[in-house]
Specification:
The complex is a heterodimer. Chain A contains two helices and no strands. Chain A is mainly alpha-helical. Chain A has one domain. Chain B has two domains: 48 residues; 106 residues, Rieske Iron-sulfur Protein (3-layer Sandwich), CATH 2.102.10.10. Chain B has a six-stranded antiparallel sheet with strand order 1-10-9-4-3-2, with no helix packed on it. Chain B has a four-stranded antiparallel sheet with strand order 5-6-7-8, with no helix packed on it. Chain B starts with 29 loop residues before the first helix and ends in a 5-residue tail after the last strand. The mean pLDDT of chain B is 84. Classes of the chains: A mainly alpha, B alpha+beta. At the A-B interface, helix 1 and helix 2 of A face helix 1 of B. The complex binds FE2/S2 (inorganic) cluster (FES). The site of FE2/S2 (inorganic) cluster has 11 residues of chain B, from loops. FE2/S2 (inorganic) cluster (FES) binds next to loops of chain B. Chain A: Keywords: Membrane, Transmembrane, Transmembrane helix.
Chain lengths: 63, 175
Amino acid sequence: MKRSYVPVALLLAVLFLNIIFTQYMVHQYFYEHYTNTIIAAVINVILFPIAFLIYKKGVNVND
Amino acid sequence: MMNDKNNKIPFNEDNYTHNINRNNERKLDRRGFMKTLVGAAGVFAISSLPWGAIAAKELTGLSDKKYPKHKITDVNSIAIGDAVDFAFPSEHDSAILIRLSESKYVAYQNACTHLRCPVFWEKAEGEMICPCHHGKFDVETGEPIAGPPRRPLPEIHVKVQNGAVYAVGVKRYEA
Ligand code: FES
């Protein structure tokens, strides 16, 4: 089976989102918008299992 | 017997010296790269936790501070739409009280959250204005609405009692 680079692209997208939400979180914390801070933190946490699932699906394709 | 020797180097059996294959050892393959990315996502997730926790703590109001109540002014001596300056909680923390309506008062620490110039109440505009770099604040919430300031003014809790206005506490005041 041909290896697929779709999971790699998806994981890079996840990393990109991580960076965006981390910066958003820190800024919203400084601006004292604590609800937004929490929302960004929760999204960052949720992105981890998503990344893990993408990896799990991705490695089944032959390397 | 000569057949005991296989004449190959390294030997296939009992090969204790040439058994490490270093070919491609440092090659970053697709799988390894994906593992790194998942690990990075994990690091981001874990490092987000303290921010969420501290933000939640701020939201619960645990860091609101109570101070001995301090009389600001008499209700009779401040007309609707007017403001009066005072100092709270210590004599060096200048603050401003604004009467918005018959019964609605708001008070803020009036050091601008940009570079601490004193913010004043512009009655005609209905905004709080910082003269230094034209920062503006929403009078109802203390949120910055224009100019360089990005953080809200610290709100002072007020209470009306027996015809006088008192300051009773500060929301998130770092002393
Ligand atoms: S100090 Fe208030 S806007 Fe700069």
